[in-house]
């Protein structure tokens, strides 16, 4: 079987190294490369891709965010690429999920490809939601300090800087490597990716409803269902935000 691979890594040199290593495997064809999570989500609409090399640590939208946004049921065979240290990669082993640690070595790549070929032949390649949830919980728990949440951010307001209480934020919008904080009709820029900021906000109050937005649930006025997967939120301010299927599920889980 010919393996049609998509490479996802925000580091050009890392993609180049992996590309050169894969040239030694005649049954692997690289059909695309992505430099960020957004590009990966779009590229994975191509159903001909049957192998994904996915970097875990990327700014704004990391590898786990890509998996959650696309949905595990829609993923091709996936090999995670990570710079995590030994104590964290044990979670990949426990869940029997294929992974490569940086710097990638040819022998380890060969083993990972053999496992993918074997799984494709036995039709047991699909990552399950239970595996993903367990993996994310284990890896993030082992790589984060005991959890405390931000209560204010230092932001620029014209010529001055102010301490903005987190409770004043209506919603957060991704803006490349920055986040745009929307507060009562005004907005402030914060030099934080939306993924990093999401990890600093209390999940009982703030929910990531889309890959590009986080909302303060206290500001939600209405929720609209627009088909099987599309939804939208209307905030008390009148702002209308798109909500992904995964975002809707997070909001449902919070309400339970």
Automatic annotation (TrEMBL):
SMART domains of this UniProt entry?
LytTR (SM00850), REC (SM00448)
Q: Is Aminoacyl-tRNA synthetase there in the keyword field? A: no
Record's keyword terms, sorted = Phosphoprotein
User: What are the residue boundaries of the HTH LytTR-type domain, all occurrences included?
Assistant: 153-256
Any one GO MF term held by the record is: DNA binding
| UniProt domain Response regulatory: residue ranges | 4-117
Which residues are annotated with the PTM 4-aspartylphosphate?
55
The organism's superkingdom is given as: Bacteria
Q: Does the keyword rRNA processing apply?
A: no
InterPro entries cross-referenced by the UniProt entry = CheY-like_superfamily, LytR-like, LytTR_DNA-bd_dom, Sig_transdc_resp-reg_receiver
Q: Which Pfam families does the record cross-reference, listed alphabetically? A: LytTR, Response_reg
How is this protein named in the record? Two component transcriptional regulator, LytTR family
């Amino acid at each position: 079987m010919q393996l049609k691979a998509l490479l996802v890594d925000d580091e050009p040199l890392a993609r180049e190294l992996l590309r050169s290593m894969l040239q030694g495997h005649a049954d692997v064809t690289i059909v695309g490369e992505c430099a960020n999570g957004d590009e990966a989500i779009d590229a994975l609409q191509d159903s001909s891709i049957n192998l994904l090399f996915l970097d875990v640590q990327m700014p704004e939208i990391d590898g786990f965010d890509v998996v959650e946004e696309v949905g595990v049921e829609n993923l091709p065979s996936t090999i995670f690429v990570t710079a995590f240290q030994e104590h964290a990669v044990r979670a990949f082993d426990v869940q029997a999920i294929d992974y490569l640690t940086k710097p990638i070595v040819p022998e380890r790549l060969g083993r990972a490809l053999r496992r993918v070929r074997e799984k494709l032949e036995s039709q047991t390649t699909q990552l399950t939601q239970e595996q993903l949830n367990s993996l994310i919980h284990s890896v993030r728990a082992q790589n984060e300090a005991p959890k405390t949440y931000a209560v204010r951010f230092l932001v620029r307001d014209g010529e001055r800087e102010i301490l903005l209480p987190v409770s004043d934020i209506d919603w957060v919008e991704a803006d490349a490597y920055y986040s745009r904080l929307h507060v009562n009709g005004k907005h402030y820029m914060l030099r934080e990716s939306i993924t990093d900021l999401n990890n600093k906000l209390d999940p009982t109050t703030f929910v990531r409803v889309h890959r590009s937005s986080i909302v303060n649930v206290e500001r939600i006025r209405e929720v609209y269902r627009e088909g099987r997967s599309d939804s939208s939120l209307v905030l008390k301010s009148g702002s209308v935000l798109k909500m992904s299927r995964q975002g809707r599920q997070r909001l449902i889980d919070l309400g339970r």
